[in-house]
Specification:
There is one protein chain. Helix content is about 45%, strand content about 20%. With about 450 residues, the chain is an alpha/beta fold. Helix 3 (about 25-40) runs antiparallel to helix 5 (about 60-85), helix 4 crosses helix 5 (about 60-85) and helix 10 crosses helix 11. The protein is globular. The protein binds nicotinamide-adenine-dinucleotide. Belongs to the aldehyde dehydrogenase family.
């Protein structure tokens, strides 16, 4: 495998200099159109593969995998002329008599490593940005979604020559081999643990990185929240894809004064969305038996330590019912680790200070959700905490907003994706300064009286 991987990357790298000259606006737009055509041609195969890998409902597949990817292509094709244009920059005194421009240039050969939870959009979304920026790309999907990975390989091969884009399938070993290659940029989506490995590997060749990671994203339901709305958005955000969403609310803090009423609304929302519990057709399955066992093990541990099951708890093979749990012991696995499954701890609070303190004492989350109608409380939470993004009275939707970057901060991620930010991740912004009549030459040595006078000595 090593020889194949090295040869593939060498072939892509060999094209970097030539591509710089011939992969302009028209060619990039064409590549994006080719990608769109290939996605549409393989949509049915992708849907079947994702259903096989994850049991995702076709509507959820279309809504959360296909629609955002095609929207990203449409947006990039439309905005590309503006993104690619060199921008004039104003300068201070030192810029007198010069013309400054910021010129985005392609970084070159990119590696994209994707996770399994949205195996289509999190593989092809970064590819859209790479192609928009004029990069070649090696795409490595997750080994945990093998059927989808195989369709992605066919889809990419139908649209692109391997020295422009290719899929290399495999697990950790293949990823390690790829990380040993001299890529110019590495775009990784996955867990913070593997993110550290990727960043250490990138240090060897000083490749730049975008790390789209995870963590525990809290939701806060304040005393002024519209509880029906909060419950529906939280249930949607948490239980879509069976909780296997990087920006799903991991746990919910709810103000004491509304905790009972919110609990009722949340149970009602869940019953409305998944009326048959485990047998609900809209409930996705857990990606692997190992992950299902991890979740049921954590749930059993929490209950053994005194946590109270409020709803659900049943599981069968790779399906776990939407589950609500209260009174979690501090430091049990559900409290410590990103849950990444359909189990939602509810934590009652009296003082907002304590909630903010607790969030700030932990790694910075990828997303934070606030449900309230009180502007000053909403603003206070936004101002006093740090997270990749904030959703106010909604969940997940910030991922799809074309005008917003998507990314984390520190342990939830480095850099950003989507739209212009994705294009910039795969581009180098080259500073170009041109001399017209810079007066600096008057100050060249020897430092005579005139130079000393000019700098005030
Ligand atoms: P993961 O880190 O286990 O795997 C991601 C990718 O890394 C896979 O392709 C895998 O083959 C590869 N990999 C695994 N071990 C590796 C190693 N030692 N060296 C190099 N590569 C290796 O993540 P996952 O389980 O696929 O996804 C779940 C995690 O991803 C969660 O933490 C979730 O929050 C996060 N996530 C983040 C985003 C985001 O956009 N920020 C999106 C989806 C998922």
């Amino acid at each position: 495998m090593t020889a194949t991987i090295a040869a593939t990357v060498a072939a892509q790298k060999a094209q970097v200099a030539a591509r710089r000259l011939r992969f302009g606006l028209a060619e990039r737009r064409q590549a994006l159109a080719d990608l769109r055509r290939a996605i549409i041609a393989h949509e049915a195969d992708l849907q079947a593969a994702v259903a096989q890998d994850m049991g995702k409902h076709p509507a959820e597949f279309t809504l959360l995998e296909i629609v955002p990817t095609l929207a990203e292509i449409t947006h990039a094709r439309r905005a590309l002329p503006g993104w690619m244009r060199a921008r004039r920059q104003a300068g201070g005194l030192a810029g007198l008599g010069t013309v400054a421009r910021l010129r985005p240039e392609t970084k070159g050969a990119a590696l994209i490593i994707a996770p399994w939870n949205y195996p289509v959009s999190l593989a092809l979304g970064p590819l859209v940005s790479a192609l928009a920026a004029g990069c070649s790309a090696v795409l490595k999907p997750s080994e945990l979604t093998p059927a989808t990975s195989a369709v992605l390989a066919r889809l990419v091969a139908s649209a692109f020559p391997p020295d422009l884009v290719t899929v290399i399938e495999g697990g950790k070993e293949v990823a390690e081999e790829l990380l040993a290659q001299p890529f110019d940029h590495i775009f990784f989506t996955g867990s913070p643990e593997v993110g550290r490995i990727v960043m250490a590997a990138a240090a060897r060749s000083l490749a730049s990185v975008t790390l789209e990671l995870g963590g525990k994203s809290p939701a806060i339901v304040g005393p002024g929240a519209d509880l029906t709305r909060a419950a529906r958005w939280i249930a949607f955000g948490k239980f879509s894809n069976a909780g296997q969403t990087c920006i799903a609310p991991d746990h919910v803090f709810v103000a004491d004064s509304v905790a009972e009423a919110f609990g009722t609304e949340l149970r009602r929302a869940i019953a409305g969305m998944y009326p048959k519990g485990l047998g609900s057709p809209d409930l996705a399955q857990i990606v692997s038996p190992r992950h299902a066992a991890r979740l049921t093990g954590h749930l059993a541990e929490a209950q053994a330590q005194g946590a109270r099951l409020v709803l659900g708890g049943a599981s069968e093979a790779r399906r776990i019912e939407p589950t609500l749990i209260e009174a979690l012991a501090p430091d049990c696995a559900l409290d410590r680790e990103e849950i990444f499954g359909p189990i939602l701890p509810i934590i009652r609070y009296g003082a907002l200070d304590a909630v903010i303190g607790r969030i700030n004492a932990r790694p910075k989350p990828l997303a934070l959700y606030v449900f309230d109608t009180d502007r000053s409380r909403i603003d206070r939470i936004i101002a006093e905490t740090s997270s990749g993004s904030v959703g106010v009275n909604l969940t997940l939707l910030q991922f799809s907003h074309a005008g917003l970057p998507f990314g984390g901060v520190n342990s939830s991620g480095i850099g950003a994706a989507h739209g212009h930010w994705g294009f910039r991740a795969f581009s180098h912004e080259k500073a170009v300064l041109e001399n017209r009549f810079s007066p600096l030459s008057l100050l060249f040595p020897p430092y005579g009286r005139r130079a000393r006078r000019m700098i005030g000595l």
